[in-house]
Design goal:
There is one protein chain. The chain is of the alpha+beta class. It is built from 16 helices and 14 strands. Strands 1, 2, 3, 4, 5, 10, 11, 12, 13 and 14 form a 10-stranded mixed sheet that branches. α2 links the parallel β3 and β4. α3 crosses α16.
Length: 429
C-alpha cells in the first residue's frame, strides 16, 4: 500500500448552462470530451501517461454506456487506458477523486484524469411498461392486419410519458423528491421564506461578482446549431439583475399551499462537465509539475433519506474524527447549495451542541460555518448543479481560490440524494 499523497495538478470545466439552454445540444460524453481535451492542452500531459480515467455521471446516456470510457477515447486517451464511470448521486464528482486516491494507494496507478459530466437537458422521457410492450408487439407484427390491430390497442394514456428527471430526483425508499426533503428541513428548523430568498440573492450576487475569477477555470464549448458554431464561454445561471422582489414573486414548487422552497432558492438544473488531473506527489515532482493542492482527507456518511440535506454535517463530523481537521481549520468552505433551506439547516446543525450530542455522538458542536468563508464565489443556486460534475467543480473552485488568496486549507462538502454526505479536505501547494 502506498503512503504517497495525491495532488490535484490542475483542472478545467465547461461553462455551466441551465438545462434547455446553451448546452442542451451537447451530450454528456461530448461535454466530458471537451473538458478532458482542454485539460490535456492546458497541462501539456502526454495522454499515454494516464493510468485510468474516472468520471462521475448520474444520468448516463443509453447511447454512451460507461460514459467515462467514451469520453476517454474521444478525447484521445489511448485505448489501452481503462476508464470507469462512478455514481454517488450528487457526490459523484467527489467519488471520482477519492476512488483515484484509493487506486493510487493500492498501487493501481499514479496518474488519473477524474471529474464528472451531466446533461440534465438530455434526461429522457420514459414510456410506461405497458406502452413499451405494445410497441414491442407492433415491431413483431408481420402483416398489415396485425399491425393495424396492434395500433388499435393504443390509448391516449399510452403517450403520457414518465418524466425521467423527476424519477431520478425522487428517493424510492422514502418516496420524497429532493425538494420535498428541503421543505421538511425548512419546517423543522424554522427557516423562513425571506431567509432562504436572502441566501439565494447573495449566491447570485457573489457569482456575478466572481465571473472574472471563475473564467480561469472555464474552457469554451463550441455548439453547432442552424447557425455557425457559437462559443459558450460563461456560466449563464448567475443573474446580475436578481432582486428580493423578483425572488418573492416565485411560487413554492414542492408544497404549493404552505411551502417555502421555490425555483429561486433551489439549485438550478444544469448541463456541464469538469476534468481534474490528479497524481501521486512523487510523480508530479518527477514531471516538473506544480500542483494546485493536495488531498488531505475525506469521508462519506449516511443519514436519514428524508433529511438528506443534512448529509454534510455527518460527513464533516466523520472526516474530523479521521483527520483531526474541524471547521475552524478551514480557510474556505464550499458546501453545495442544493437548496437554501438545506444549507441553512446544515449551518444550524453544525452550531448546535444538542444536535451533536443526539446525532453525532459527540459533546461539542461541530462549530461555526462563517458566511465570509462559505461559497465565496456563489454556489449552485446561481452557478447550477450538474449533479455528476458538481463535486469536482467544488474541488477545482476551492483550490483556485485558495491560490488566489494565498490561503492554506479548504473543506468541500455535498449532500447526497438517498441520505448521504461527502466531505473532502484539500490544501494548497
Amino acid at each position: 500500500m502506498s503512503t504517497q499523497r495525491m495532488v490535484i495538478v490542475d483542472g478545467v470545466r465547461t461553462p455551466f448552462a441551465k438545462a434547455g439552454t446553451d448546452l442542451a445540444r451537447c451530450a454528456p460524453d461530448e461535454l466530458g470530451r471537451v473538458a478532458v481535451n482542454a485539460l490535456l492542452t492546458r497541462t501539456g500531459l502526454d495522454p499515454a501517461l494516464v493510468d485510468e480515467v474516472i468520471f462521475g455521471c448520474v444520468a448516463q446516456p443509453a447511447e454512451a454506456a460507461n460514459v467515462a470510457r467514451v469520453i476517454a477515447l474521444r478525447a484521445g486517451i489511448p485505448e489501452s487506458v481503462p476508464a470507469v464511470t462512478v455514481h454517488r448521486n450528487c457526490a459523484s464528482g467527489c467519488e471520482a477523486l477519492t476512488l483515484a486516491h484509493q487506486k493510487m494507494c493500492a498501487g493501481q496507478g499514479d496518474i488519473f484524469i477524474v471529474g464528472g459530466t451531466e446533461s440534465m437537458s438530455g434526461v429522457p422521457l420514459l414510456f410506461k411498461s405497458a406502452t413499451a410492450e405494445k410497441f414491442s408487439k407492433l415491431s413483431r407484427a408481420k402483416s398489415i392486419g396485425q399491425k393495424l390491430k396492434t395500433l388499435a390497442a393504443f390509448r391516449p394514456t399510452d403517450f403520457q410519458p414518465r418524466i425521467g428527471l423527476l424519477l431520478g430526483l425522487t428517493d424510492p425508499v422514502c418516496g420524497l423528491n429532493m425538494g420535498e426533503t428541503a421543505e421538511i428541513l425548512a419546517r423543522e428548523f424554522g427557516l423562513s421564506r425571506d431567509l432562504q430568498d436572502a441566501f439565494a440573492l447573495e449566491s447570485h450576487q457573489r457569482a456575478v461578482a466572481a465571473q472574472g475569477r471563475l473564467a480561469d477555470e472555464i474552457c469554451p464549448v463550441y455548439v453547432n446549431g442552424n447557425k455557425p458554431a457559437a462559443a459558450i464561454v460563461q456560466d449563464n445561471g448567475p443573474r446580475p439583475g436578481q432582486s428580493p422582489e423578483a425572488l418573492a414573486k416565485l411560487k413554492p414548487v414542492f408544497d404549493r399551499r404552505t411551502g417555502t422552497v421555490t425555483a429561486g432558492n433551489a439549485s438550478q438544473l444544469t448541463d456541464g462537465a469538469v476534468a481534474l488531473l490528479v497524481m501521486s506527489e512523487e510523480k508530479a515532482s518527477a514531471l516538473g509539475l506544480r500542483p494546485l493542492g493536495v488531498l488531505t482527507g475525506y469521508a462519506y456518511a449516511g443519514c436519514d433519506p428524508t433529511r438528506m440535506g443534512l448529509g454534510p454535517v455527518f460527513a464533516i463530523a466523520k472526516a474530523e474524527a479521521q483527520t483531526g481537521l474541524g471547521l475552524a481549520d478551514a480557510d474556505l468552505i464550499e458546501i453545495n447549495e442544493a437548496f437554501a433551506a438545506q444549507l441553512l439547516a446544515v449551518k444550524k446543525c453544525s452550531e448546535s451542541a444538542g444536535f451533536a450530542c443526539q446525532h453525532l455522538h459527540r459533546e461539542e458542536a461541530l462549530g461555526e460555518i462563517p458566511r465570509e468563508k462559505l461559497n465565496v464565489n456563489g454556489g449552485a443556486i446561481a452557478l447550477g448543479h450538474p449533479v455528476g460534475a458538481t463535486g469536482a467543480r467544488l474541488i477545482l473552485t476551492s483550490l483556485k481560490e485558495l491560490r488566489r488568496r494565498k490561503n492554506k486549507r479548504a473543506l468541500i462538502s455535498v449532500c447526497v440524494g438517498g441520505g448521504q454526505g461527502a466531505a473532502i479536505w484539500v490544501e494548497a501547494l
